[in-house]
Sequence to fold (184 residues):
Amino acid sequence: MTPFNQRKQDILNKKDKSSIGKWDKKIKSLCNKINSKENYYTTSSCSGRIIIMIDQNKKAPKLFEFVSHDLVSFNKLKKEISKIKKDSKFKQEPPILHIACKTLEDAEKLLKKAQLSGWKRSGIISLKKNIIVEIISTEKIEFPLIKERKLLVGNSFLEIVLKKSNENLKKGWLKIEKLKKSIK
Fold:
């Protein structure tokens, strides 16, 4: 077995360490398609999400106050905000994939497909032991939400941001499907 194939087998057999503890269902079929190809395997993925997280610089346990990989209603968002007691920020994050590629040529082919599918911010992020391609979309929103137990924005602003966040998630999911179709 080649070193690449051994790493692929090791990674794909590892326990899921994601914050949700399972495959993100909206990106799972794309990951499965990539992982079925001889020269590629995914190392991490997310279909996009809306989160409220503690506003701090370091990653830490219980960093996320609220996470959704689905569309969020205004009532749900308000309910979640009412539970938060710490300084927090709102984030809507785009889909992202990290993919190990066997060769630079394989990475270049994958990047071309990603870019043609609308994934504008994509590139090679590692050339060391593994060639890693990061495929990421551009739809993103982030702002401080709660400071000293006070909500920093009003309902009308939250409604606008949430509407845009939900639209961004849908755009990302379309890009996932478009990329999946481009991989033969």
Notes: The two ends are 24 Å apart (CA to CA). The CA atoms of residues 124 and 133 lie 4 Å apart. The chain has a mean pLDDT of 92. The chain has one domain: 3-182.
